[in-house]
Design a protein that fits this description.
This protein is α/β, with parallel strands linked by helices and about 270 residues long. The protein is about 30% helix and about 25% strand. The longest helix is centred in the C-terminal third of the chain and has 19 residues.
Length: about 270
């Protein structure tokens, strides 16, 4: 029966919770850790891709006073079609400050519109990088992506067991991508990980009606999802002019992502 799902979607459209301020955000856990960031090389299909990495600059605290150091969850971040703009590095740093090790590979290094398999291979290499780090718990990896990266999140979360949860920002569930390949909506039955979908009602490239259709299909298949819709927001509202937006919707959505990852990766 679809009526409860529709009611939930309407509630999402109407939700608002005051104003957010940049200085209030340290991630849902409120840790505010010092961060170190740098670029590494990731090998995939005999090609070398640069990837931005942001991580807490100090190891986790002792576990039960036994001298064993805690490790952090990891997140792979997939930038939009516009490349790894400064705003994505900023987002990675802020996630790292709240207790995550984040890697953002530059998937357009060799082709502006690569085949899905190329991006999948790079994500697998990125996950392997995270799992090889001493400060990462390889069983607690998340995936997030924006625009084309949102489609990749919807597409690969059902296919890659490495990732425990995902956040898709204004993705394309019924698109075959640049090369007319698989549609994420066709892989719903394979989705086992929880997914948060963030979208705006004024998204022209990816109309909100398609997101509602996708979430109704997720619900019918018994798949766990969360949906946060921002009234009046266009496609790409998180990054404006290459920088991380500080609008209410952007800051609120950033906190929604942090809380979701805290629940699914730190819980």
């Amino acid at each position: 029966m679809k009526f409860p799902v529709i009611i939930l979607m309407i509630a999402a459209l109407l939700s608002a919770a005051g104003c957010a301020d940049k200085t209030d955000y340290n991630g849902a856990a409120g840790e505010g850790l010092p961060v170190e960031s740098f670029t590494v090389d990731i090998m995939s299909d005999n090609l070398t891709y640069p990837a931005y990495v942001a991580a807490p600059a100090q190891p986790g605290g002792e576990i039960d006073g036994e001298g064993k150091m805690a490790v952090y969850p990891g997140i792979a971040m997939i930038h939009s079609f516009n490349g790894l703009e400064p705003g994505y590095r900023d987002l990675a740093d802020r996630l790292a400050a709240s207790g995550y090790v984040v890697i953002a590979p530059e998937w357009q290094t060799f082709e502006r519109a690569p085949l899905d398999g190329v991006v999948e291979g790079l994500l697998m290499a990125s996950a392997a990088y995270l799992m090889d780090r001493d400060d990462v718990d390889g069983t607690r990896l998340g995936l997030t992506g924006f625009c084309a990266g949102g489609r990749y999140t919807m597409l690969f979360l059902p296919q890659m067991d490495e990732f425990r949860s995902g956040v898709a920002w204004y993705g394309f569930p019924y698109s075959g991508g640049f090369n007319d390949e698989a549609h994420p909506a066709d892989l719903i039955d394979d989705l086992d990980a929880p997914i948060l979908i963030i979208h705006g009602t004024k998204d022209v490239p990816s109309p909100i009606s398609g997101i509602y259709e996708y979430t109704i299909a997720l619900d019918a298949a018994g798949k766990y999802f969360e949906l946060k819709v921002y009234q009046g927001e266009p496609h790409g509202f998180m990054i404006t002019g290459g920088e991380r937006s500080e609008s209410f919707a952007a800051l609120d959505a950033e906190e929604e992502m942090a809380r979701f990852f805290d629940r699914t990766l730190k819980g």
